[in-house]
Amino acid sequence: MSKESEVFRRYIERNNLKMTKQRELILETFLFSRGHVSAEELYQTLIEKDPAIGLATVYRTLSLLCDAGLAQQRHFGDGQTRYEHDFEQGHHDHLICVNCGKIQEFFHPHIETLLEQVVADHNFTIQNHRVELYGLCPDCQK
Amino acid sequence: MSKESEVFRRYIERNNLKMTKQRELILETFLFSRGHVSAEELYQTLIEKDPAIGLATVYRTLSLLCDAGLAQQRHFGDGQTRYEHDFEQGHHDHLICVNCGKIQEFFHPHIETLLEQVVADHNFTIQNHRVELYGLCPDCQK
DNA sequence: GTGGATGCAAACGATTTGCAAGCAT
DNA sequence: ATGCTTGCAAATCGTTTGCATCCAC
Fold first, then answer.
1. What is the topology classification, in CATH, of domain B3-85?
2. Contact across the interface for A115 and B118, Cβ inside 8 Å
3. DSSP line for B15-73
């Protein structure tokens, strides 16, 4: 039983919700999928394991996972919402290939520090931030 | 006649398109609106000047302005696409208030330099980037 | 048994598209 | 006259919601 599964169970219990086999399957599949999945992509993977599962359930469960702190929404240029689960490994930013869609994560402590400074200079209190670089990945530069 | 209007006319001509009073009105209104407008917001302003104008035309013209290099799409958290026209004044990033929606622009040369370095380190060729900080603006911190 | 969870289909909001009519060239 | 552009309505896409049924507690 994974740590995330434990966290989710506690969240479920604390809020008087119920653990179902769909929720278990969705969490498991979500955790297994590396990177940044959209609801639709996750759904496509899920129907192979449970053809009866509904897209609405995927959306509802992803929303639950966000509330539980196990997932985080991300919006990159295309119209879709993507969900990330490995953000706990520590904050990171993204390099996105505009050709193949590959997403490369990176972390640069100095940039983070400077961003904090910008926020302070403008008297904002920060909640979160995003830094996204769009371009061509090494493979797509031809 | 503004510089942008000139650029637009050239673009129209070069692509064998036609200049219409709707396109003129939309460009003019778009340029006048400071900041980051959504198609719907622009449309609301426009129907006061020309009640017959269609929302589809607004979308089509904004798309044209993007192609002509006079506008740029931006996606902030909410579901709407926003259009920016003053990005030519030089690149800048955004501080967004999650409470009142105010958008404060800023520019920090050192951050830009570091981002270029990150891109180089990963062998990407950059096209553009965005840095967005979400939090509470001074007014909303109560 | 009861209330939350499901799958489906319908509803939704933002954006796009097909079409007949209008207007710039 | 030609064909790009318009406004309208219908279509589309991603996401949410209503509802009857189902299932975890």
1. Arc Repressor Mutant, subunit A (1.10.10)
2. no
3. TT----HHHHHHHHHHHHS-SEEEHHHHHHHHHHH-TT--HHHHHHHHHHHHHTTS-EE
